[in-house]
Write a structure and sequence with these properties.
Number of domains: 2
Oligomer: single chain
Strand content: 5-15%
Strand order of the largest sheet: 1-2-3
Pfam families: HTH_31
Structural class: alpha+beta
Number of helices: 5
CATH class of the largest domain: Mainly Alpha
Protein name: XRE family transcriptional regulator
CATH superfamily of the largest domain: lambda repressor-like DNA-binding domains
Distance between the termini: 23 Å
Shape: elongated
GO molecular function: DNA binding
InterPro entries: Cro/C1-type_HTH (IPR001387), Lambda_DNA-bd_dom_sf (IPR010982)
Amino acid sequence: MILLRRLLGDVLRRQRQRQGRTLREVSSSARVSLGYLSEVERGQKEASSELLSAICDALDVRMSQVMREVSDELSLAELAQSAADETVPAPMRPMLNSVSVTSVTGVPEERVTIKAPTEAVDVVAA
């Protein structure tokens, strides 16, 4: 199952790290506790629209840009899941336990890895 909160957290973390900022700096600017922001970045907590707005303001990034990145990663994860459903034998499908999406900036392709308990299947989407 693809968790939207995980994808959102990954995008927010990358935005923060691109700026070379710490969790403490962003949490202070957004007026959010450091622990809660950390949980949002790790996909453990759902961010309300108000909280997401405050975090985006603190990062000086448009919420639409964040949501666009999340949408792109969700599309890739869905593509990877579909590919896994087609390439993984039916008895193994329930064994899939995680989907990780890695974007490589400046490279014209996205690499998507679907991890199963005993093997990984790489799918390259153009």
